[in-house]
Amino acid sequence: MQSSLPRPTALCAALLLLTACYTNNEESLYGPAAACATGSATYLSAVEPIIQFNCSACHGNGSYRTLGGNIPLEGYTNLRAVAANGLLLKSVLHQPGASPMPKNAPQLSACNLDVLQRWVAAGMPDN
């Protein structure tokens, strides 16, 4: 018995049905986003990882003179100095008076911005 659809048509129809069932959204691919921590923002466990991931390529010890506008963010002492003069938050919040950071990249997530703001508001503790 011969099929009523020619092979190429049946193949195209099958592929069309398969692609119609595919969903491409962040939650279905990666699961629900983790909740943003609301406790105290500690330097070692919360702030330093944000800086390492988003800033150290340009503002790390080996690159800040050439790529980072001579602004070092590596280590607590350097980061605290930049945060204390207001430049850290102005930059990451894209406020006037500072270059928006990270450069040529999207603004940090709301969660990361919240962590940095809470750390500065708490007096930038070294914990």
TrEMBL record:
Residue ranges occupied by any Cytochrome c domain in the UniProt entry: 34-124
Alphabetized GO MF terms: electron transfer activity; heme binding; metal ion binding
PROSITE patterns, alphabetized: CYTC, PROKAR_LIPOPROTEIN
Residues spanning the signal sequence: 1-25
Entry keyword set: Heme, Iron, Metal-binding, Signal
Full protein name: Cytochrome c domain-containing protein
Organism field: Hymenobacter roseosalivarius DSM 11622
Organism lineage string: Bacteria, Pseudomonadati, Bacteroidota, Cytophagia, Cytophagales
